[in-house]
Design a protein that fits this description.
CATH architecture of the largest domain in chain A: 3-Layer(aba) Sandwich
Shape of chain A: globular
Number of domains of chain A: 3
Oligomer: homodimer
Largest interface: A-B, 78 and 78 residues
Helix content of chain A: 40-55%
Mean pLDDT of chain A: 91
């Protein structure tokens, strides 16, 4: 038995492309973990008729679970609760305890912003209306999520702001109607393999070999290029888990060098772990701060991030990172030699024990026949072990934004190899 | 008469959230420009039944134009052309001239990759199958887009890779069936207003006033918070353009201070223009490089971006930006005083004439009752005009990522005000 779900994202600003939907992808991951098959994600405007049509479509498509995001606010055009109530044939009723809880939450804002008490009362009451027999979740923002049984389906009504949606979801999965809906979901296992430094065509060849040697019919395999890495997701069930293991083993055998993650960990997590107890300094040019920005994404990164210099100009490279002017004159600012001097300078200036230097041409202008747009030079060094440095000059494809982003990924992977004591080619 | 459209995005990797859909938002913009109303964006998997259901849904929803993205490749699971042909009741026919064109394109790759000629031939033939009476577009990659009349509707079948989709779209809008479909589209005008430093509730109040004083029934208004800015989009037609102008004027009158863009320009574009002929230095702490990264997003930013220091530690602030140790001891690293010293240090060290200093607590840890998580101090200074500096200490809401991102927006706005000679409060 498979359990199917549909996601309905409401909001004119999402539909118009002005805001990127982050809820659909997040919910897709959660559903996959539960063994629920996501059939459709439907983005629709704020109009009642469109939302109603979306719910009907999901019903017609046999979705056991329908999840809506957005349209739960206090204003008149936030209509999701009402339309879901009609869809489920469960009239809205005032939940007085909920009304009080919302009033308590809102009171704090109200004092600060000096809002009209009459309007507030109406807004609170609107958000405390719950379809008969539905479960109201604890409000995370002010609008409470809902779990609404609807004629054999369950509609999970969630607020639109991602943090609120995520916290409400954790509550929704624990409710009785939701648990009943996923009771028959099969056990699925997802194996995620991440590789770096390998063309997609080589993986395609390995999959053909695997098809011949072990047979892949019982698996669902997707491969996907993301931020210069290749992700392979293998979905298996109780009967095919061993085939998934065989495939993973074959990939490890054929691409051991490129395979860096088999447990779902990201390169960012791995580098953060490897940096424990060390101090990292960064000297970067064409990435313009994005490398340091990515290295400091994670809470607690101040423990290992000593500092960075964004040295766009030659003068900044010379004065802030101690790159010898002659080196630039001789090899050019975009060269392995200058990248190495930037890494050494970052170690020196920030009192770090690991350094990264990165210099390149992100484009769209500034390329030459000799050094085209996309040429980026990298150096990673450990203080006192300069002989084990890794230095690379690569030609990265894509737009300015892609070259900048991919450069940060390459730097992370070189850093990982250095810190693991691998000095192998990219 | 309004013309409605629906977009169907196919692809398991998009549905699973592993790849972000860039085509839906891009097409939304193009449709808005043509006066076509986008009713739904439906993301669906690669299965034939799901795609068929998606097309039927769009028909039932009265979409005059349905646009599909993806599923046009050479492999067996690329089924979009076939399913659209069935949907339109137009059997697939081989277009021999198209087959030859595709073969010519593919030949180049084939030689380089040493592909099997038999398999190639089959792949080319598959991609040259065109629904009877449909228009085949010039292939941008190898897969040609299609414009397929379908019983009063038009289905525009586009390849999935964004660059290919965009180029194919430019061709599709010029075909006779497409032109016929949009013939009755009304002229729409979109007015985009961007504001900064104003709570959404104040705009809501202004909209209530406008409703009373000028009436807003003929307009479609959406407001949306994005990266700490508030965007208001007003859609009007020939008869309501003047009402849109009246509303824009009212907003300008009531929120002139906060309103920074009426022509669609972003704060990034405005700051880039204001920086022409100047050199900017950045000293940043909690944003960890993201401020410099955003300032160097744009091609040509090396003309005005002198450099940046990511000074996470006190030592880095002292040594790399010349912040006096006593200042940190007296006021703390997160203080207006230290932000000012960082801005001055960035000017000094990079030989710049404009400086930004930014220091704060992005969280989730590190907050104190006195200086909570989200406290960020900013300073922007022009060399030689230090008396006109702008200094702020703000408490920004949200997660670590949101605090970091919003901080870059605030810094951009303070920079804009400084460079325009405004020294007004945020």
């Amino acid at each position: 038995m498979s359990v199917r779900a549909g996601v309905v994202v409401t909001g004119t600003e999402v539909l118009a492309g002005r805001v990127r939907d982050r809820n659909g992808p997040w919910l897709a991951d959660r559903l996959a973990e539960l063994g629920v098959e996501l059939a459709h994600v439907l983005i629709t405007g704020d109009r009642p008729a469109d939302l109603r049509a979306a719910l009907e479509f999901m019903r017609a498509e046999g979705a056991d679970i329908v999840i809506t995001s957005g349209g739960l606010g206090p204003t008149a055009d936030d209509l999701t609760a009402q339309i879901v109530a009609e869809f489920a044939g469960r009239p809205l009723e005032l939940d007085e305890a909920l009304e009080e809880r919302i009033a308590g939450i809102v009171a704090r804002f109200a004092r600060r912003w000096n809002l009209d008490p009459k309007a507030l009362e109406a807004a609170n009451r609107k958000q405390a209306m719950v379809p008969q027999g539905a479960v109201a979740l604890d409000p995370v923002g002010t609008a409470p999520g809902l779990v609404v049984p609807a004629d054999g389906q369950v509609v999970v009504v969630l607020p639109g702001p991602p943090r609120e949606l995520q916290e409400s979801w954790q509550q929704a999965v624990l409710t009785a109607p939701f648990e009943a809906a996923i009771e028959n979901a099969p056990h699925y296992r997802q194996t995620m393999l991440r590789l770096f430094g390998i063309p997609e065509s080589e993986i395609a060849e390995t999959l053909r070999v695997a098809e011949r040697e072990i047979g892949l019919d019982a698996l669902e395999i997707t491969t996907c290029l993301r931020r210069a890495e290749l992700e392979i997701v293998i979905r298996s069930d109780d009967r095919s888990d061993h085939t998934a293991d065989d495939l993973a083993a074959l990939i490890a055998e054929r691409h051991g060098q490129a395979l860096f993650s088999t447990d779902g960990s990201s390169i960012d997590e791995q580098v953060a772990a490897l940096l424990t107890g060390r101090r990292l300094g960064v000297g970067e040019s064409c990435t313009g701060g994005l490398l340091a920005g990515r290295l400091t994404d994670r809470p607690g990164s101040s423990a290992y991030f000593a500092g960075g210099v964004v040295a766009y100009s030659n003068q900044a490279k010379i004065e802030m990172l101690g790159v010898p002017p002659d080196l630039i004159k001789q090899h050019g600012a975009v060269s392995e030699e200058v990248a190495r001097a930037m890494a050494a300078g970052a170690i020196d200036r920030f009192g770090a024990d690991v350094g990264i230097g990165l210099t390149g041409i992100a484009g769209p202008d500034g390329g030459t026949p000799d050094k085209p747009v996309g040429r980026v030079c990298f150096s990673v060094i450990t203080k006192g072990e300069e002989d084990r440095e890794i230095v690379r000059a690569l030609d990265l494809p894509g737009s300015r934004a892609e070259v900048r982003d991919r450069s940060t990924t390459v730097a992370f992977h070189l850093l990982r190899r250095l810190l693991r004591g691998e000095a192998s080619p990219v």
